[in-house]
Structures are given as C-alpha cells and as structure tokens.
C-alpha cells in the first residue's frame, strides 16, 4: 500500500514549476566546460544553416550563368562545411555527455546521502521499493532523456534559431510566412506537454509501486511458499504490472498524437512556401535559387522539430522522475544537532529518564511520564507486552527520535546537548534480527570500527564465542558471507553481532531479545558471550522470555506507555503483580493473584 509521505513534497515540486531549472543548477561546477560545449553546438548549427544558402546562391549565380569552375569551388566549400559540421556535432555530443554523466553521478550521490540522513520516522512511513525506484529507475529515466539526447536537443535548438535567422535575412516575406506556424507549434507543444506530464507522473508512481512489490515478494519467497500465497502474490503483481502498463500506454498515446500534429504543420508550411514562393518567382519578385533555398530551409526547419518531439516524450517522463527525486531531496533531514552541541566525552554510563513523554504521531502518545535511573554497570531489563513502549525507550536513548516532553540524560547531560555521532559512538546494540552485510566475516565484525586490526577483530570474536566457528570456514575471517549472511544460521549471525558490539567497546549496551529463535546449544554460547559483554557496562535488555532477566539489577515492567512495576526479579515476584503473573504463565508456575490487563 502506498503511503502519503511524499505527497506534500511532490506537490511543492510541481508548484515551483522549476524542476528543469533546478536540475540545470547542477551544471554550475562545469561553468568552464559549458562555453566549449555551446560553442561546438553553435558551430554545428551554423554549418547546417549555411548549406541551403550556398545551394540557393549557386543556382542563381553559378548554375544559371553556367560557371562550372565557380560551381566546383562551391561544391568544395559545401564539403568542407559539412565536414566541420560533423566534427562539431561529434564534439558537442562527447562534451555534453561528459558533463551530464557527472551531473547524474552527483544526483545519485545526493539521493544516497539524503536517504542516509533521513530520520527513522521517514522510513516508518515509506517503502524501500519506492526509494530504490527513485534512486535507480527515476535517475535512469533522467539519464535516458538528458544524458543521451540533450546534446542533440541543444544542437537542434541552435539549428532552428540559425534557420529562422537565415530565412528572414534572405527574403523577409517568405521568412515571415514560413514562421507563421511557430505560434501554432508552441501552443500545440504546450497543450501536449501538460497532458503528457500528468500521465508520466502516474507512470513514475506505478513503477515505484511495482518496485515495492518486487522488493517485498523477492525477500519473502520462503514465507509465500510456506503459506501457499504464491498465486495471490502473482495476482497482485499482475494487477500492479497492468496498472503500470496502462499508464504507459496512455502516456504514449498522447505523444503519438503529438507527432502527427507536427507533421501537419510541416506540410502546411511547405505548401505555403511552394505556393507563395512560386508566385514570387513567376512575377520576378524572387529568384529560383531563393525559392529552392527556402524549400530546403523549411525541410531543415521541421527536422529539428521532429527530433525535439522525439526528445519530448523522454523529457516528460524525465521531468516526472525529477519531481519525485527532488521531492525526496526536499524531505526534512535527520534530527539535527543543536547549534552549540559538543562532542560527548567518555561516559560512566548513568542513564536517567525524567518524566519522558513521546509519540510517533501528534495524536497518539507511546510513553507517558516515564521516569527511571540506571547507574553505571547495572543491567536493566525491559519487559511487557508488545507495543508497550520498550523499543521506544531504546530508540530515545540512541536519540533516533527526540522526546516530546521530559528529558533523557546520560551522566547528568541532556543528550540533546551533544552531537549524535559522539553519543552513539559509546552505545553498542545487539538486535533480535541480526543484520549482516555483503562482505567478509572480518568486515562484518568491524562494521562499527572499520579501523580495527585483525588481532582486535579476532579478540572480539573470541569473547563472543565465535572464533572457532569462523576459523572452520573455508577462508576463515576472509570468507564472503553473501547478501545478509544467508549462508549462516540465526545463532551464528547473532554471535557475529555480539562480536561486532564487543569490538566497539561501548559504555552502554542494548540487547533486543538476543537469544530468541536459536537452538538450546547455541543459546548457551550466546548467553556466555553476553555475560562477558555485560561486565562493567550499563545494559538495557529487552526480553520476552523472562527467564533470561532473572539476574538483572532492575526490571522495568512497561505497560501502556508507563512503568507499571520496577524492582529486582525477586522483589517483583514477591509483589505477586503483573511481572509475577507473566513469569508464572511463561514457566507454568502458580497462578498470579492479579490478572493480565
């Protein structure tokens, strides 16, 4: 399902009416190269405009009088002229293509940097497939339009201008007659442009939906087969594919109607020049050479227009893609550091929540007046039902989001007063769903500390109880894991994640159900590694299996965005409250005296 996250930025891009101009601003670093490219474009246009003039002049001054020597000279001039023209066109294509490809590379870089800087709230309401479509499909559409044909477009625009000037200079009356179709062409192009732009916006949106569907289904093939949903996925894909097909057909239908309209104008202009030029020639007001030159100019006049009309189809699709790209670039960036934010010095690890309020949307609060204190070296267990706010507390410690009320402090410092990079550098995290990346085992362990030596990487792996497994691999630490470490088991991926956290040596450690979904033998290795990792660090452990938190210094029972109970495992069991009830249900112990809300 498509979210509404981009609606406002896209509407803003359309209101600005300057999408192409904004794209051309990327040309600023190439100000010194542009005059060379434009000079080659102008030279090519001049050679094309000179040809018909020389032919017409030769008819009147050389062919009719029978001057063979002069005719041979003019033929030589024509050959030289067209050779220069071909070289100029070749040079302009190379130069303009060189510039545009660098502009597109910068555009891709800007998109990637923007995606990396966006806040988590943006990804909460956006789809990965649509973002990939903007980075790949939309930029590729811009490349096809501007990267491959913009040099030809510029050349034809200059040629058109040169032809108009030449026609008006040779014979003002015939020149004005020939250019009567220009206003009609402008009106026609404007109307078709408006209609086509709307249709191509739909095509860019539908290809984004299609990319999202592909990304989801390719990543969940196993689940689709297990739940016998393959036929439903195929049907949904066919529906989205048909929507994209229909949108493209409607867009092509508009551009297909545009081309015959240009041909009609071409025929009218040619007939007008032939009729009126013939009249002027018969009455002696114009020579045969002038009329011939004008007929050649009229054909040249519409050749650039026909080429531009072909470019027009690609340009409309590219502009629609640019609107989506600039809408993404206009998204507000991540939480910004305060103007006077400073680098956080090495911390002890005290964490304090003071009456913290937070909501992912303005209308729904997730945390409601949460207060607690964790002293350095303590292990804090967060338990409670799904959606109670446990993960939100972790996100606020990492400052993935800013609190809407209250304060989060580390060592008596409001985390909003320090830079985010220096804050997160001192926090390690081991997630339930371990994320590994394409690359070697060593590179994955050193993900948070790329400068680590091989000895440091191996030492971290030994602490995480994964060194022996790594050395048993074909290339040891140099073994390529493949996409998301698919060749490893869940437990092996979890041990690598623990080694990654060991290597960065954080003062605050976050564990999000790190022992779920693994077998008993591997769980023992993970628990042993975690025990070593916890030593001397402030740790926050999110656990749904309450047996894993019995040794925690504090247990916070989160319920409906509030701390319902807190204390040690023994204290909470003695209270016979919510925690004791949950513990009894999980382990099959005696029933609690308080029902679970």
TrEMBL record:
One of its GO terms (cellular component) is plasma membrane. It comes from the Bacteria. Residues 351-585 form the ABC transporter domain. Its main location: membrane. InterPro entries: AAA+_ATPase, ABC1_TM_dom, ABC1_TM_sf, ABC_transporter-like_ATP-bd, ABC_transporter-like_CS, P-loop_NTPase, Type_1_exporter. Residues 36-317 form the ABC transmembrane type-1 domain. It is a multi-pass membrane protein. Keywords: ATP-binding, Membrane, Nucleotide-binding, Transmembrane, Transmembrane helix, Transport. This is ATP-binding cassette domain-containing protein. It comes from Myxacorys almedinensis A.
